[in-house]
Design a protein that fits this description.
Elements lengths: L9 H15 L7 H14 L9
């Protein structure tokens, strides 16, 4: 949520479920780097972009 400047909501749930399912299905290993990459890919599909904090 912090990465995209969002509060709890539909988009966050979709991203979390996508990561969880990918790990449980064996599509990605259970590690931060692979989960982070998948989070960014799914967020992009949803039209979200990371916010840069200064």
């Amino acid at each position: 949520m912090e990465e995209f400047g969002l509060k709890p909501g539909r988009e966050i749930g979709i991203i979390k479920n996508t990561i969880r399912d990918a790990i449980l299905d064996g599509d990605i290993p259970n590690n931060f780097d692979d989960a982070y990459k998948l989070m960014l890919e799914k967020a992009n599909e949803l039209g979200l972009a990371p916010v840069r904090k200064k």
